[in-house]
Target: L-fuconate dehydratase
Amino acid sequence: MSSIVALETSDIRFPTSLSLDGSDAMNPDPDYSAAYVIVRSDAGDGISGHSFVFTIGRGNDVQVAAIDALAGHLVGRELEPLLADMGGTFREIVGDSQLRWLGPEKGVMHMAIGAVINALWDIKAKRAGLPLWQLLARMSPEEIVDLVDFRYLTNVLTREDALEILRAAVPGRAEREAALMESGYPGYTTSPGWLGYSDEKLERLAREAMAAGFTQIKLKVGADLDDDIRRFRRAREVCGPDFPIAIDANQRWEVSEAIEWVTALAEFHPAWVEEPTSPDDVLGHAEIARAVAPIRVATGEHAQNRMIFKQLLQANAISVMQIDAVRVAGVNENIANLLLAAKFTVPVCPHAGGVGLCEAVQHLSMFDFVAVSGSRDGRMIEYVDHLHEHFVVPTEIRNGSYAPPVAPGAGMEMKPASIAEFTWRGRHAAA
Model:
């Protein structure tokens, strides 16, 4: 047996506000950042687990402190039993009543738990010699459902429901894995659409996106309607009348305002409208969805837990579900989210970009294709060409699609030199 000897955290910030990369109507000057954690053990294999929570700057102070608060759950404990029962490990840490009180099961503490859970998955995948998506996709249906906490879900998704979904996908797993290796997983890009970019830069990046093989782009909207009409018109002139262009308001609008704004942009045929209002307003999303149909409503990058996703699906509030690799409590809770989407036959198009979100969430979509939904139809992963060079295994895009990672692990490990260069106030350690 080996023991966990340290939970190391770093406050890593990139000055993306200088170029307005990531700028939108709600977040005009983000500095893409990562509250980064390394789980170290005394095992002779030298494998450590790497993960992070994505923030946009100063929130890192709080997020790093939350991760540090979890050291007592791990440091000094034997590693192998934790890895052998990742479902139990998840439920134990999420169930710490005094930390759970801070949510419950949402917010900074919940995301910190996700970082620790994801770091343990990184170790488990590295030890298995497999990328995380492949490790998950080769588990039996029974092993997969053991990872999920079905509490609060059973009125719409039971363990038996999940087993039925997963068993139905077992035939064809090998063929889908082979198809994934051959052609990858479809992507779309938000790179042309940041709100702080000039029209000329938008047009240039839209052309480049189409030339690179992406089959959809996304524009940020919501600050000024006249500007949005002008920018959407320019994008349509570049991309043509039938090329899918989604829009993203980043929670900027009231419900009535969202309906009016999307109606005003309807002439440009948005592929979907994303985060039109508060991520917690389930009924507001449902009202918007009814009013703007057939334009689809998408949300999820700020959905704080599996219960919010359950309600969004129950209320027919979304036609596109957007999970995030680090917003909820890690891999385990996102498996629950994928199963919910499969139960309601709603496609999952994850949120990505930021710092390392592309590297992380691709594993979940690829697992979904092979072992859960069995489909790539109408599904794609967001891609933004920012900061990939800082990762040990950076995302690879081929003809607009994500090439499946083959390196063992969860894909969230940053290069030591990048951690050192962009650490904001030094490294913290809890041991």
